[in-house]
Design a protein that fits this description.
By secondary structure, this protein is mainly α. Among the domains are: about 1-115, no CATH class; about 315-450, no CATH class; about 455-575, Rossmann fold (3-Layer(aba) Sandwich), CATH 3.40.50.2300; about 580-595 and about 605-720. Helices cover about 65% and strands about 5% of the residues. The chain has a 5-stranded parallel beta sheet, sandwiched between helices. Strands 1-2 form a two-stranded antiparallel ribbon. Helix 23 packs antiparallel against helix 29. The radius of gyration is 35 Å and the shape is elongated. It starts with a helix and ends with a helix.
């Protein structure tokens, strides 16, 4: 036993001495970074997470750049051990600190490798290596392939401006190795190049076989008079597409390509996981030039570019115009906070400007696509544009075979439904249309809406389930019962006005199954869903659901503040944020104004009396401006129960509110006569006799509007009989 104790003491002393030799002391100006990296790897592999995290953190604090980390990794005898250590760290849940440090080390090392590979001088040197010996050529190619898309401008420039046939051959071979990564920049340049290079690159693009080269190839075929180039293009298109069609519409090809970008086709993303992507342009003077844009807006930016080129090819192509408006709205929705899109010049106007200028025929398809894609923020923008420009049947009729604005009345999001109802009501139609009967009930529902937001948690681990539910409550959500399976909450869901957030944490296969099931529930088809998962499952789930704007996949093992940030980001992107009390009040007042206008105009299409039951109910549980607005609308509804409810509300009120409500009772009586009960008439006359000032005048005016028989009124003049 003593021997065992002494052995453990020696091991511990050795570990501490090793750590002390690497961790900086006040006397040490700079630690040994390579040794820190080696220690990090060693301690992860032998299962010492705390020591690994300590060494890793000191290393992160010590290095001056990400590139330095990449150089340190290259200096190791076996760099693969680092990657093994990172994988082990991310799989272990024993140390949150190690998880954080390992993640940061991996991220910064990869950034350093990328940054070094993309240095212009390094790319230039790699191109020059292609003229050297066999080993030099191999290393040059390796570096250019490592640089990827960033190497293409210099490689193309070398193809154009350096006469060596050997160099051109080597560059062509390197382009082949780059494969799909060179297609987008080369396609951008292709229409502006000389015929010889067009012929070469058309053949190359055909070999690579990526369909995103088709619009550029078709453009070259249409514009060139060089038969050799035409033949090369035809062969390339057949290699990619299986056939060549000389009548193919360039506008159609550009629009199809743009739609792939709008749908976030992952094969078009050059740098997955990176913060920036490249948007390419070409001019004979400057050559190929990249413009870095944030990844969040890359897809809509590229979609806008494709639709614009489609319109340049065919200015009457309304599908492309609608697509451009749609993509511009998506760009606005996805724009990071405090970021300005460098591709959207100062001469450009707001997305809404172009939407309203294009008219309802171009915006209806935008709304239809947004509803189909469950893109709530874009749907709301499209409805706002239609409300400003649409009139008459242009709002509820379209050439799409559907009625997008009418369809919006049944969309799962309550704001979209309210926006659609308000737009249709403001149009004041003179003839009924399919779905017109839904407008008034939806306006009435908007009056009852509150800023209460509901969330549900589906998680198989009881402890994590309660943890996530507690987090949602702290964020202000009203919680449905946290459950392990969607089936367990279905009954409760039927009694909930809507669900504003779904939080899930399950194994990947079960997460996929439960997600598909909850999406079959109509009220959840557009609900934002956040999946908290393991690092191991995240990539799989991201491939499955990453293109869905209403879904976000986030690592579970992060601090609560990061979870809150992820939830808020999802809510802003998927729904435009949560419905607030202030926003609810604004919707209520706008809906009441719409109902009032319909009532005053005696609309023959929208029957305001259909909202009577909900308005009467709302009259008893609202206050202030909203309550008085409800009373104003009720005064235009010809129903006995309405006038009775108005009078009861007036007699139970006091002060200015009572005077205003009496005015509404009087208005109702003037329009529809006396529908009050005898008890209410007696209460009113008593108020007339006993009140003073403005209240007495309002009560008297109400009595006069009722046109009571003399037996009620004369006592007010001659006095009560004794």
């Amino acid at each position: 036993m003593l021997r065992s104790f002494l052995y453990r003491q020696r091991i511990w002393l050795g570990v501490m001495l090793l750590l002390l030799t690497t961790l900086p002391s006040p006397a040490q100006e700079k630690p040994n970074e390579k040794l820190l990296l080696e220690n990090f790897i060693h301690y992860v592999i032998i299962g010492k997470p705390d020591l690994a995290a300590s060494n890793g953190q000191v290393l992160l604090d010590s290095v001056e750049s990400d590139k330095q980390l990449a150089d340190l990794l290259d200096s190791l005898r076996d760099p693969e051990r680092f990657h093994k250590a990172i994988k082990l760290s991310l799989k272990q849940d024993v140390s949150e600190q190690l998880l954080k440090v390992a993640g940061e080390l991996e991220k910064r090392t990869e950034a350093g490798i990328r940054s070094r590979a993309r240095e212009p001088q390094r790319i230039k040197e790699a191109i020059e290596m292609l003229l050297g010996g066999q080993r030099s050529v191999a290393l040059g190619r390796e570096r250019l392939v490592e640089a990827g898309e960033y190497a293409v401008p210099q490689m193309l420039d070398a193809m154009m401006n350096r006469g060596s046939g050997i160099l051109k051959a080597e560059l062509m071979q390197t382009f082949r190795q780059l494969g799909g990564r060179c297609v987008t920049p080369l396609s951008e340049a292709l229409p502006s190049l000389d015929p010889e290079l067009q012929q070469r690159l058309a053949g190359l693009l055909g070999e690579i076989g990526y369909p995103n080269a088709l619009p550029a190839l078709q453009e070259v075929w249409l514009e060139t008079n060089n038969e050799a180039v035409k033949d090369a293009v035809e062969r390339a298109v057949r290699a990619i597409n299986g056939r060549f069609d000389s009548t193919a519409s360039l506008a159609g090809l550009q629009a199809d390509m743009a739609d792939r970008y709008y749908q976030k086709d992952r094969s078009l993303l050059s740098f997955p996981g990176e913060a920036y992507q490249l948007v390419w342009s070409y001019s004979p003077q400057q050559g190929l030039t990249p413009q870095a844009v944030r990844t969040e807006i890359y897809f809509p930016v590229m979609a806008m570019r494709g639709y614009k080129r489609s319109l340049q090819a065919d200015p009457n192509f309304r599908t492309a115009l609608s697509g451009w408006i749609l993509a511009n709205f998506a760009r606005e929705v996805n724009m990071p906070v405090d970021y300005s899109d460098p591709t959207y010049g100062p001469e450009m106007r707001s997305p809404m400007y172009y939407a309203v200028a294009s008219g309802p025929a171009s915006v209806q398809p935008v709304l239809g696509r947004a509803l189909k894609d469950r893109s709530t923020p874009i749907a709301r923008r499209a409805i706002a544009a239609l409300a400003q420009t649409g009139g008459g049947s242009s709002l509820w009729r379209s050439d799409l075979g559907s009625q997008p604005l009418v369809d919006a009345l049944t969309y799962p999001d309550r704001r979209v439904r309210a926006d659609a109802a308000l737009a249709l009501a403001a149009a004041m139609p003179t003839e009924p249309f399919g779905g017109s009967d839904r407008v008034v009930p939806e306006l009435a529902s908007a009056i009852r809406a509150t800023g209460v937001n509901y969330a549900m948690v589906i998680c198989d681990d009881p402890e994590i389930r309660l943890e996530l539910a507690s987090l949602a409550r702290k964020m202000g959500f009203t919680m449905l019962s946290p459950v392990a399976s969607f089936n367990d909450v279905k009954n409760e869901l039927t009694e909930t006005p809507g669900v504003d957030l779904v939080i899930m944490s399950l194994p990947a296969s079960e997460m996929e199954k439960q997600y598909q099931e909850l999406r079959t529930e109509y009220r959840l088809t557009a609900a934002p869903v956040i999946m908290f998962t393991s690092t191991h499952d995240r990539e799989y789930l991201d491939n499955m659901f990453g293109r869905d704007v209403t879904t976000s996949i986030v690592r579970l093992n992060i601090p609560d503040d990061k979870r809150v940030e992820a939830i808020n980001n999802l809510l802003n992107l998927a729904a435009g944020g949560l419905l607030t009390d202030e926003e609810s009040k604004d919707y209520a007042l706008r809906a009441l104004t719409a109902l009032h206008d319909l009532a005053v105009s005696r609309s023959t299409v929208f029957n305001v009396s259909d909202a009577a039951r909900q308005l009467i109910s709302a009259l008893s549980d609202t206050t202030g401006e909203v309550r008085l607005s409800i009373a104003g609308v009720l005064s235009y509804i010809d129903q006995k129960r309405v006038q009775v409810s108005l009078m009861d509300a007036a007699m139970n009120a006091d002060g200015e509110e009572q005077i205003n409500l009496l005015h509404d009772v009087a208005g109702s009586a003037r329009r529809f006569g006396n529908l009050l009960e005898d008890r209410q008439v007696e209460e009113l006359l008593r108020l007339v006799r006993t009140s003073r000032g403005d209240l007495a005048t309002a009560a008297a005016a109400t009595a006069g509007a009722l046109n009571l028989s003399p037996e009620y009124v004369v006592p007010l003049i001659v006095g009560e009989k004794q």
